Amino acid sequence: MNSQTSHFACRIERVERENYRVATFTLDLALDAAPGQFVMLWLPGVEERPLSLMACDPVTLTVARVGPFTTALHERRTGERVWVRGPYGNGFRQTGEHPLLVAGGYGVAPLLFLTRRLQATSAHPTVLIGARTARDVIFVERFGALDVPVLVATDDGSQGTQGLAPDVAARAIESQPVSSLYACGPEPMLDGVAALARRHRLPAQLSYERKMRCAFGVCGTCARDDGWLVCRDGPVRFEEP
Amino acid sequence: MNPEITLETNLCGVRLPNPTLLASGILGTSAALLERVARAGAGAVTAKSASLEPRAGHPNPTVISWEAGLLNAVGLANPGATAQAGILRDARSKLATLGVPLIASVFGGTSEEFAGVAQVLAEAEPDFLELNISCPNVGDEFGRPFAADPQAAAEVTRAVKAVVDVPVIVKLSPNVADIAGVARAVEEAGADAIAAINTVRGMAIDVRAARPVLANRFGGLSGPAIKPVAVRCVFECFAAVSIPIIGIGGVSNGLDAAEMMMAGATAVGIGSAVYQNGPEVFARITHELATFMTEESYRSVKEMRGAAHK
Fold this sequence. Notes:
Strand order of the largest sheet of chain A: 4-3-7-1-2-6-5
Oligomer: heterodimer
Structural class of chain A: alpha/beta
Helix content of chain A: 10-25%
Largest sheet of chain B: 8 strands, parallel, barrel
Order of helices and strands of chain A: EEEEEEHEEHEHEEHEHEE
Strand content of chain B: 15-25%
Largest interface: A-B, 31 and 38 residues
Number of domains of chain B: 1
Distance between the termini of chain B: 30 Å
CATH class of chain B: Alpha Beta
Distance between the termini of chain A: 42 Å
Number of strands of chain A: 14
Number of strands of chain B: 16
Largest sheet of chain A: 7 strands, antiparallel
Radius of gyration of chain B: 18 Å
Helix content of chain B: 25-40%
């Protein structure tokens, strides 16, 4: 361990392209972490940002190219260095025999991690991947390889069912046993899943994303309006039925 | 808790239910967070420093932890004085029912700016204004902090005291040769209380990256590492001035709080200890302090104040 400073210096072992703007980076670092937890990834001279874990041994991160920081990461090649601190936050807890996992866009990453952990128990997860359009749908093969049922919803109907993820999830709840909901994705989608959970009296675990600084609950940067700290109280929020 | 002892604290005529207070820069970014910390047991809460115009702060990394504390250079990120006054008003109404006083924190690049921000924030009627003349992390922009020089510190204090009626706390820097001299200068300029200390200027280098970890290169060190520095500074200020002192720096348990009071503190700021324990740290420290007082037969926090000056 690189204990003299706050970060682990590590190298990129593998880069896999998921679609036109998303890639998965596997690092030569193993952490003891739970699905839903995150790390702070530092590119010296660029920035440091929170990223959810897609796997922890080795640390694997799925990142969309959306701004200067993620562009700088996407320009790194295999063998190049990145710096990591963490893991931070509280991950998902395992609840229910038939969990439905709702992923929006690159929110698939922590839910793939979760699926692997759930499969080690007696649970039978189903995954719903929501995206704007077919080219934003990723991880169908990765979930398929784990032999879990995969539903796809796109806003424009270009792949899977046409509709918003919470609406398609609602139909799934009516047609198959669902014991609990998990979700990671844009906040309007999380709001939709929370409403769905209330309607069907299902426990839900929602993973939030926010701009962060410290990542350990002192700076207040990631606080929601109710004073809930995404980094320390979350990023997973429990909605009891 | 032993009914014989009282933790009630009088700071410039304002009643604090206990002597622990949330130090500026920690969790003070919103009314909901200030309320949360008050509900968790803080005797007073300090909001994040505000400047006249909004500030984005420094790029990350801005806050890191190491073995004995935190190193930060957030760079005074804040929404600007007008928006901050809104946050303070909201916080004040949330805190009123709890009986927990609110401290607003002021930052400016000049004495005039300090006075301007103070006026805007004072309209929200906080119980105190704290002048952050000692931030170590904005030197590239503003030069040496006012707290580095007794005359400059006094000038800012006078400028603010001339325009507000609310009690003014001046937050001093440990990064000076003679903190007692600065304390005397701000007392003469009309300061109602002193907060000591702000963070200690520090730096961390990642040797594998061969570069400073913080984007700002330098940062302010806080946490257990700086407690002896803080205790010494409070001790020196207590010997030099008669206005109350808020002792801040590395307090993470009840005995640390007692130590700070025996050095001369009337109230004790808590900041980095939130890192290990979350906001619940306030209730724990208060409980430990009460236990210590029972064990050592102190009936009030006042009896401990300056007890080490023999």
